[in-house]
């Protein structure tokens, strides 16, 4: 059954407690997720977004418990990635002529996914749809986080249906932010922004400032994943503006992989040197072959500087760092420092290669890094400690 969130709006989505990975295996979802869909009943009836394809039959079946499908006057698709549009084919088999409101890019993407000539009605920022006492206003939000994305604002109820913006991959039975575990919620919201929206931060700022300029009253923000922001809903908007402005905390993260623990020992000694030079800085050490890659990305997002270490193997560095550095390059972090380090036996190219990759990813790399031959002895560990102290003076 759906859950009424106002007299006119019912949540008809799906909570996915078992979800562990998303975007293929690119994003870990240790706390599950939800696919939020909303049914509006005014003089006209509107469905906003659907759910992921594995739940399409369940979604349509449950929707039939709420309403005769033929009574749905309009479908609004704010964004057409498979997790939001996946149930559309099953639904459209029942109501094939129902108008689908989306952006022009949204129509292209739906055609590209499902190869159907449905009744597309393309909209742009400022277009409206009067549904009775309330009016829906559409606001294009390209690259938050796909080219087709838009928001839908419902007057009267003062709800912003924001799709992926302001969401989290977080399953909670209660639906609302004020009844969720606050620590978990904001940890997942931070991870979501860091891993998905970071490359589009300039557009996040521009779009939020545009929406704020409309001076729309907002009683609730209803994203497509995770909680509905009901208590102080604009707190997540303010947080996005903070995150979008080259976010960093007083944190340094050391990321490494190791074969026989020489590079691990270097990482730990460097951390000791950082702590000795600045006891107030938060230092985190993460093994890239053992830690969740999205958790590492989140810690990079929070850091003002990172150190990346690996031994040299086959004239290069270990593959767990290769994949991570490729992800980091795509996320386009700004105003962060980075340095490389590592052990080697005979050729020793890894440190320079890592430094080059960090530069290519947009980090400020002002040090050639630290290389140590074989396993560090006492003098080698002392060199690492001094290297850590030096890091504090260069960031």
Overview of this protein structure:
The protein starts with a strand and ends with a helix. The strands form 5 sheets. Strands 1-2-7-8-9-10-11 form a 7-stranded mixed sheet. Strands 12-13-14-15-16 form a 5-stranded mixed sheet, with no helix packed on it. Helix 5 packs across helix 9 (293-302), helix 6 (201-213) packs antiparallel against helix 7 and helix 8 packs across helix 12 (378-394). The longest helix has 17 residues, at 378-394. It contains 12 helices and 21 strands. It has helices at 56-66, 82-85, 88-92, 104-114, 182-197, 201-213, 235-244, 262-277, 293-302, 319-331, 350-360, 378-394, and strands spanning 3-4, 9-11, 14-16, 21-22, 27-28, 33-35, 38-41, 45-48, 74-76, 100-102, 120-122, 128-130, 135-140, 150-154, 159-163, 220-223, 251-256, 282-287, 305-309, 337-344, 370-373. A hairpin with a 3-residue loop joins strand 7 and strand 8 (45-48). The protein folds into 2 domains: 3-244, Ribonuclease Z/Hydroxyacylglutathione hydrolase-like (Metallo-beta-lactamase, Chain A, 4-Layer Sandwich), CATH 3.60.15.10; 251-394, 3-Layer(aba) Sandwich (Rossmann fold), CATH 3.40.50.360. The chain is of the alpha/beta class.
């Amino acid at each position: 059954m759906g859950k009424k969130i106002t007299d006119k709006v019912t949540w008809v989505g799906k909570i996915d407690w078992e979800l562990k990975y998303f975007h293929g295996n690119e994003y870990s979802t240790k706390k599950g997720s939800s696919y939020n869909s909303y049914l509006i009943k005014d003089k006209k009836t509107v469905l906003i977004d659907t759910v992921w394809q594995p739940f399409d039959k369940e979604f349509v079946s449950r929707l039939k418990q709420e309403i005769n499908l033929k009574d749905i006057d309009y479908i609004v698709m704010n964004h057409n990635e498979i997790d939001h549009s996946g149930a559309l084919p099953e639904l459209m088999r029942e109501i094939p002529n129902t108008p689908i409101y989306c952006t022009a890019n949204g129509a292209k993407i739906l055609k590209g996914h499902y190869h159907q000539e449905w009744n597309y009605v393309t909209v742009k920022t400022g277009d409206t749809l009067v549904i009775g006492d309330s009016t829906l206003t559409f606001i294009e939000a390209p690259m938050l986080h796909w080219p087709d994305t838009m928001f839908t604002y419902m007057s009267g109820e003062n709800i912003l249906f924001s799709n992926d913006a302001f969401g989290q991959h977080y399953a909670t039975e209660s639906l609302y932010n004020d009844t969720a575990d606050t620590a978990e919620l904001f940890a997942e919201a931070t991870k979501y922004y860091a891993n998905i929206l970071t490359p589009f931060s300039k557009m996040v700022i521009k779009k939020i400032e545009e929406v704020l300029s409309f001076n729309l009253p907002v009683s609730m923000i209803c994203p497509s994943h995770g909680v509905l922001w009901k208590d102080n809903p604009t707190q997540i908007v303010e947080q996005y503006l903070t995150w979008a402005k080259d976010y960093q905390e007083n944190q340094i993260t050391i990321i490494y992989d190791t074969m026989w623990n020489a590079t691990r020992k270097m990482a730990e000694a460097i951390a000791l040197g950082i702590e000795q030079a600045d006891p107030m800085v938060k230092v985190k050490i993460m093994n890239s072959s053992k830690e969740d890659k999205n958790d590492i990305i989140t810690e990079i997002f929070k850091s003002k500087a990172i150190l990346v270490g690996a031994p040299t193997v086959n004239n290069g560095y270990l593959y767990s760092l290769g994949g991570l550095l490729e992800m980091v390059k795509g996320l386009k972090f700004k105003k962060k420092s980075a340095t490389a380090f590592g052990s080697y036996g005979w050729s020793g190219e890894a440190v320079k290669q890592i430094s080059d990759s960090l530069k290519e990813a947009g980090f400020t790399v002002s040090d050639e890094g630290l290389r140590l031959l074989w396993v560090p002895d006492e003098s080698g560990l002392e060199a690492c400690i001094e290297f850590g102290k030096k890091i504090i003076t260069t960031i």
